[in-house]
Amino acid sequence: MVSEYAVEIFDYLYSLETKYMPNPRYMDDQSDLDWKMRGVLVDWLVEVHTKFRLLPETLFLAVNIVDRFMSVRVITLEKVQLVGIASMIIAAKIEEVFAPSVQNYVYIADNGYEQKEVLKAEKCILEVLNFDFSYPNPMNFLRRISKADNYDVQTRTIAKYLLEIGLVDHRLMPYKTSKVAAASMYMARMMLKRGDWNDNLVHYSGDYTESDLIDVVNALLSYLTEPVTHEAFFKKYASKRFLKASIIARKWAHETVGAGANAEGW
């Protein structure tokens, strides 16, 4: 981002957050689906995203599209993967320089849908969401906080893993993405003993203090101390490419606070 306009740009992104948040209770209106099925879908989207080596922004936007769409439309079980594919296609067209073809997605979905079905689903989602995808991507917030962390690679990688927990675990859905990004950096620094959450970090996080972040940190801790349920997501971040972030984070969570503990009093 252009540094001289950074403050204005982020003020604008913060102002958009609430507008593009999905309904965190939308599953109440979905007769065929539940949160576990949604988690399976997102885990599969993580796998697809990894295979295509797409940008992080594409994955976050794709999941936001899925959730916003299902906040206003009831989806049958046999169509849920189709919604995921179409959402990823839309996100890739927005974020990527070279997006995979529709046929690539059809193939990776084991040819479960015809190309015309995917295109029809894409058109439907675009129309239902009014072609409005000015989503304030959480990667922008994380990168800004990284500036105050001297762009430390390991801290940012673990924070990115924690941030992506907000994709697979619906319990993070009620929180603004800027807050989840701040809590992810806060927690990653704690794991690596990188020092206090100082005034500089508070500023670059969007003015989130330690006390502001405790509820999100507790939600992340809850996920980390539970058994692995999203295999593709865990394996992605257990790789050398991502510095074994998922292994480090889960080990730390169990050793430091134990299953069922919380962040109060740290």
UniProtKB/TrEMBL annotation:
One of its GO terms (biological process) is mitotic cell cycle phase transition. GO terms for molecular function: cyclin-dependent protein serine/threonine kinase regulator activity. The keyword Cell cycle applies. Residues 43-127, 140-222 form the Cyclin-like domain. InterPro entries: Cyclin, Cyclin-like_dom, Cyclin-like_sf, Cyclin_A/B-like, Cyclin_C-dom, Cyclin_N, Cyclins_cyclin-box. Residues 136-251 form the Cyclin C-terminal domain. The keyword Cell cycle applies. Belongs to the cyclin family. This is Uncharacterized protein. It comes from Nadsonia fulvescens var. elongata DSM 6958.
